[in-house]
Amino acid sequence: MRSFLISICLFLSLVCSAQVQSNNDTSFFKKWITPKRAVIGGIILQQASSSIIEYYWWWHERGQPFNINNDGFWNNYSLGMDKLGHAYISYMATHSIYEAMNWAGFTEKTSFYTSLGVSFFWALSIEMGDAHTVWGFSNTDLAANMLGIGYAVLQQKVPVLNNFNFTFSYFPSRYFMNGDGQNWSLTSDYDGHCYWLNVNVSELIPKRSRIKWPSYFNVSIGYSTYSNVQDGILNRSRQLNAGFAFNLNHWRPENKGAKAIKNVLRYIQLPGPGVSIMNGNAKATPFLIH
Known about the structure:
Shape: globular
Distance between the termini: 18 Å
Number of helices: 9
Oligomer: single chain
Order of helices and strands: HHHHHHEHEHEEHEE
Structural class: alpha+beta
């Protein structure tokens, strides 16, 4: 989960590299900064920056012999939120690389295997680095990464699965807000995270059906957690969320910048009305983020 910020750098670097050729009309850029070079350069830049950041932020001066850490998977300290984070990051990375390479003009086969290979070795390299620190090699973290990569690959090969997408939303949790934001970080505020399965209902209803579903609304099911402190002990509970979300698949922008924004928003939950359920209690809200 610590690699969340680096994954954002990956996505933004790929989006930016994919826009370089389109936004520069000088003969120099036309000649030397081709779409393929721009995308490959973005991938190399991300991988290099990821290694440097990981080393100086988490591995430097924490070296120790190779060790394995089993943190309990779904019943660990975050109740599985960090595992969903790993899956989501790899899912987003695989799609980002694949789409950027397709845009640049690489063959379908090259785009497919490069997105698969880079995402896998990126996840593996992080775990190998952790294996020589206090955090240790986590086979469950790597398994979660593989699930995210695997589902992204399935979506590329089975088109109907593109109607079932993973999205993410975040809102600062009460646990951190009540503590005046001390020691806050996006990656550690698990209670502020929510991971969603977003279902594009309008595309699943048969065309001949009399049932009409508004094309700009999806049905979403989300998972999050909630914490409170009692007698100095942190207690965390699971929370199930269900509701509607805005669907931008039917938005067809012509502007290149708008297209880039749409690609980014594909991985973000755009909240609509919904219900959250925790400990048997349900609460409705007009904009369900968490």
